Every structure is written in structure tokens, then in C-alpha cells.
Amino acid sequence: MKSLDDEFHGIMTAGLGSLRSKVTKPFRNALESIQASEGDRARMEAVFDEAENPLDEDGDEIAIRVRGLSKIYGKHPGRAMELLAEGHTKEEVQNLTGNNVGLYDVSFDVKKGEIFVLMGLSGSGKSTLERCLNRLIEPTEGQIVVEGVDLTHMDDDLLREVRRRKISMVFQSFGLLPHRDIKNNVAYGLELQGIREEERLRIAQETIDLVGLTGYEDSYPEELSGGMKQRVGLARALATDPDILFMDEAFSALDPLIRNEMQDELQKLHSRLGRTIIFVTHDLDEALKLGDHIALIKDGEIAQIGTPEEILRNPADDYVSSFVRGVDSTKVLTAELFMKKVTDKVRISQGPRTALKILRSSRRSSLFVVDHDDRLIGMVKQERLIRAVNAEGSLMDAVITDVPTVAADSLMKDVIQIMVTTDFPIPVVDGNGILLGIVDPSVAAEAYSEGEAIR
Ligand SMILES: Nc1ncnc2c1ncn2[C@@H]1O[C@H](COP(=O)(O)OP(=O)(O)OP(=O)(O)O)[C@@H](O)[C@H]1O
Ligand SMILES: [Mg+2]
């Protein structure tokens, strides 16, 4: 079997062979190869410059659009496709034709800048799908449009440029070159692009700093821990400044703590760099944590596509439910889902007497106080209100301003952390401090049982 190092090298140099065979001169040197590649690069850039990203129904830009994508492994794909169209299963097609169905009729859109997770059991077709997207695996049927450019009929030279400059890959087994130090591993893709040494080492250093490996430039892969090696893998992928990152089980070989750390790191990098990422995993927790959208794949077909919340709340079928089972949904559900409208609140311009009246009729033990823009000032309780009334004071005299707040997208697990230390509802505010709603302590139990309820 090919090692992943070979595989990476193969991917990066794919197409060079065909390039060489096209040159008839007997003494072709490296310079020519780079010049030829420069021509392809310019051609590729021109193609992408002219293209426009398609838009989805929300008006958001689509980075990758896939339509009717199928991959049949074997000698008689036509027959297999016919049987699939007649409704036969992957297993039946295998038995009838000996062909293995990698993918069948897969369609989806990936928004520009999002993390799109492909998840499913081993053998479901995740890697096949990811590799069909840059045609490392040639699809049997279907269309792939990347940033408005149809890759389906693109020639090999351009495709190689796309893989070198547009789309980078990060592998589970790191795929580092053992005889190169870290800086030269990170610079490898740039070297293949023909970038001169000084420049590529400068970029490599920047990227090494970005992934937190400063100081390890001269180390060798064998001197690094698994987590550090995967940082190198990530740095190498980022060094070529690609628009799109493919990550196939990139964190699966790491132990849980390091894996968590790398997930956090990826999220940070993602919000800083804003790349489109296709992330393959068989781990639901990872998918829920990282994914803006998740596509669940079963037997080469899409079982469900949705946001993490959609998938948790509404699993499409038993296959999806079986993944969702056992997930602590407070780790993915947000305050917004459990937020209620604030029916009882008082404006700071109203007096303590009015506040006391509203409070008593609300049958609550506390009231939130807002300014005329609905910005949260704090809260009041009965005892302090009565004191303010008796002392002929203002409402402000009774306000407790030191109130914990959460954002609409705060995770329920964090909201519950706050809830257990208080005896009042938790206010949800926006970036300007405007009171959007409250999360009542009674929903904590609801949030916990949500995972149960959807099974
Ligand atoms: N080169 C190949 N030749 C024949 N069949 C293949 C080939 N590669 C993959 N397959 C088949 O295609 C299907 C999908 O495999 P794929 O590797 O894409 O799954 P996966 O979801 O990535 O699995 P894993 O989680 O184990 O990596 C499987 O049935 C597999 O046996
Ligand atoms: Mg795989």
C-alpha cells in the first residue's frame, strides 16, 4: 500500500508526468517546467477571475456546487447506474454487477467561508466524495462547480493548478516528508509552485507562527508529537494560501485532549482566515462542534443535510438518529432556541412604585430594568423596591446592575452554568446590550432532555 507521504507527493506532482511527455526537446530543464506551470497558473487565474460564484436562495455565495455526483468503482458503471436508478441498493448492485457504489446522485451546495462537514460510517463514501470534488477520483457522473468554475471537464494541467493553489488537503496521517525539517515541509507546496527559496521560507515562517509552532522550524517530523505534526500538516495546507481546505479525518488520529485543542485552533484560524472548509469526520461531536452545515452520508447517498441544530432536533431517519443518540445537546443548542419574550420589564424612567406594581402582578421575584432603547440596565427585587419607595428614592436606587447576561448564540451548557448560581431568569442581550429575551431556569431541564425527546 502507498504511504500517505507518497500519496501527498503524488497529489502535489500529479500531472507533471503528462506535462513532461508533451515537451519534445530532449534537454528540458526545471526552469521550463516552472515556466510551463506559470502559463497554466495564469490560465487558471484567468478562468477563476472571469467566473462568478453562484448564489443560493438567501443570496449567499456558493463556493462549491455539486449536482448529481456518482462514483461507481468497477468495470460496468453504466449497468450499476441503471440499477441504482431503478431503486436497487448499494448491496444489491454489488451482488448483481460486482461494482462497488462509492457515491450515488449526491447534490449539495457549500457556502463560501463555511465549514461543511461530511460525516457517516466507515465505508459510507466520505473520502470518495471529498476526492471527487477535486477529481483526484474521477466521478462516473455529475457536475462539480468550484467558485463558479465547472471542474468536470477541466484539462489535467489546469486541474493540477487548482489542486496546488485553490484547494489544499490535510490528511489524517499528516503526510509529512520525514527527511525534511518543519520549515521545508511547510514550504513544500510553495516549492512545487516554483517560488524561490527566500520567499517560500518567509511564507513558511509566517504560517508556522500562525499555527503556533514558532521555534520548531528546524525540527524534524519524528521529533514532534501527533498534535504538533498535524499543525505542520495544517500549516503546509495554508502556506499556499488556498481558498478551500479539504480535511479528511484530520484530527482522528489525535488523543481526545489534543483533538479538542486542534478543533478550537481550527475554529480560531477559520474565523481569522475565513476559508471554505470541507471537513470529513465520523465523529458526531466533532461534526456538531465544527460544522456550519453537516451532510450525513449513508451507502454513498446523502441521508440528511442541515445545520447541527436541525439535525439534532429533526433527524431525517433511523440512520441519522443512531448518530444523534447519546449526544449532549446542550453542547450544540443555543440560548436563542430556549429564549422567551420578556413580558415583565420596567423602564428606568418609571418610578419604584410602578415597578413594585408590575413586579407583584407578574408573580415573579425579580424584574429586568431597561432604558428607553430597551438596553438592559439591571434588575430589581421586591425588598429593595419597597426600601426605595419608603425612602422616596428613584428606581435606580433599587437596581442591581451586576447581572450576568448571555448572547443569543451562547451554548446552553454555558447558560446552565450561570443558571445554577442564580435564582432568576438569565437575560439574553445583543452586542449593544439590548435585551432580546430571557432564558427561564425551567428550560434547563428541557434543554437537557432535548436529546432524549428527539430519539
Ligand atoms: N479504490 C476503490 N476501489 C473499489 N472500491 C472502493 C475504492 N475506494 C473506496 N471504495 C468503496 O467505496 C465505498 C466508500 O469508501 P470511502 O473510502 O469513500 O468511505 P469513507 O466514508 O471514507 O470510509 P472511512 O471512514 O473508513 O474512511 C466503500 O464501499 C469502499 O469499499
Ligand atoms: Mg475515508
Number of strand elements: 15
**Structural class label:** alpha/beta
The major β-sheet equals:
6 strands, mixed
Helix content: 40-55%
Mean pLDDT: 86
**Radius of gyration using CA atoms only:** 28 Å
CATH topology of the largest domain: Rossmann fold
Quick one: CATH superfamily of the largest domain? P-loop containing nucleotide triphosphate hydrolases
What does this structure look like?
- The structure is a single chain.
- The chain is α/β, with parallel strands linked by helices and about 450 residues long.
- It has two domains: about 10-330, P-loop containing nucleotide triphosphate hydrolases (Rossmann fold), CATH 3.40.50; about 335-450, CBS-domain, CATH 3.10.580.
- The protein has 21 helices and 15 strands.
- It has helices at about 5-15, 15-20, 30-50, 75-85, 90-95, 125-135, 155-165, 180-185, 190, 195-210, 225-240, 255-275, 285-290, 310-315, 320-325, 335-340, 350-360, 380-390, 395-400, 410-420, 440-455, and strands at about 60-75, 100-110, 115-120, 140-145, 150, 165-170, 245-250, 275-280, 295-300, 300-305, 345, 365-370, 375-380, 425-430, 435-440.
- The strands form four sheets. A six-stranded mixed sheet has the order 6-7-8-3-9-10, sandwiched between helices. A four-stranded antiparallel sheet has the order 2-1-4-5, with helices on both faces.
- The longest helix has 21 residues, at about 30-50.
- The model is unreliable at about 1-5, about 15-30 and about 450-455 (pLDDT under 50).
- Magnesium ion binds near residues 126 and 127.
